Amino acid sequence: MREIVALVDRVLGRDALGSYLHGSAVLGGLRPAGDVDILVVTRRPMEEGRRRSLLDGLLRISGSGNGTRPVELTAVVQSEVRPWRYPPTGDILYGEWLRGAYEAGEISRPEPMPDLSLPITVTLTGNRPLTGPRPAQLLDPVPPTDPARASLAGLPALLADLDTDTRNVLPTLARIWSTLATGRISSKDTAADWALTRLPRVAMSSAALGSRTVEAATEEDH
Known about the structure:
This protein is α+β, with helices and mostly antiparallel strands. Helices cover about 45% and strands about 15% of the residues. Strand 2 (about 35-40), helix 2 and strand 3 (about 70-75) form a beta-alpha-beta unit.
């Protein structure tokens, strides 16, 4: 965690307004192999050199095996999300599923990121700054309808990856279901437990047989 904070400070300096934990770290605790989810709020978009420096640093740190977990880091320019509007625009995104592209020289650029409505909501609820002020001083509340819209918008891509990324897709689908049904965003393992008790009775025996797979999937929460 300290390496990531130091990297952000070194690359962005005073343009980093605050860095915040979200995801499983604030939704009941990280699983043993879970990602560290970090949202960085910046003063202005990053220049090309800063983008490359931040991505290169994350490639070295993320999942390095030196006690550092896999990292999912999103940076957003404050003026793009305050005042809030949907879909929000993210400035940069790093996750291990993007490692190959970044190692090949691609660079993350600003683009609409509907899914940002979920981490921003969790960031505000979790209230866990790594640097900077409390998140409510930098971020506006997200209307409850927007995380639901983002979840539904992402369904086609999730279903397309079901066969190749089953360990992640199944608990993510469970979380979408529980979010839509309850209005609350929970961790993937909590959502998987919630979903298992609500599956149609005819599917319960299969679900019980597959429960270990679902539990294992939540170990790689990202």
